[in-house]
Input
Amino acid sequence: MNRGNVFGINGKIETECLTVVGAQYAPIGAMGMEEVDRNTDVLLSFMDRASGGFPGFDLFVAPEACIQGFPQFGWEKALLTMDSPQIKKFQEKCAELEVYGVFDFLLRVDEQNNFTNTAIVINDKGEIIHRYDKMNPWIPFEGSIPGRSCTVCDGPKGAKLGIIICADGDYPEMWREAAVQGANVIIRPTHYMDPWQNAWEITNKSGAYFNQVYVVAVNCSGTAENENFSCFGRSMILGPDGNVICEGANGAPSMIKADLYPGIIDAMRSQAVHSAPMYSYVHRGASSHPYAGRGLDTSDYTAYKRGGDDGTV
Output
């Protein structure tokens, strides 16, 4: 059954339904572990409410820096490690509710308080099965150490999850990297701020359409304690045609939920049908006589070839 998009698909498609819930709120800009714990309790409460409001859901997504926020100063006292008890609580909650979860934390990497902006995937048994370090920290504000790769992990109901974080989504190569790695659902935890609501919508829609993928973009919402920025919320889940399936409140806490069909994405990418950009990406020119049915087997793009050592492109 062909649902949730305007693309043509040849033949019969059978796929499981992936139910995704995202929670948007304003985490306190934590300047110590007491505030981290307060944020942790809020997020655990959202997970419990999601279980009651959307029983049987498969995947829970939280926003960027979900229990730490981005305070103006004092953030170094709120950095976590992968062994922190707060992360253990989310592992236990995922196991209790039997759901997968995506959570984003600021993790200390050394005694000089260097840190990464890191998203993890926890499975329904409470195991951490995937880690992604943000590859494009927001210059000049964000001092996290950039990650070096964007890989994909298996999720529930046939999902292949690619994670990008906030400013990552402002760069088209990030969306394409996740899609080329096999993601049929790209998850984007964010701390996206006013007044960039227009850019938020444009980047999410274009990321979904150009890469023929579901997008789950979960933003913070509101003006938090100890933060200078106001986040507008508007978390959204989009289909592979770039259309918004559901959207959260503007500037207020809320939850969003949508049913997705990852198998449709896999089928679309494997067929030479109308408006299939990811098929065309690997089978460019497949409709031409010399390359009929297969397309060119080389990439002639130069956009991602870096320039000189002086940073020019």
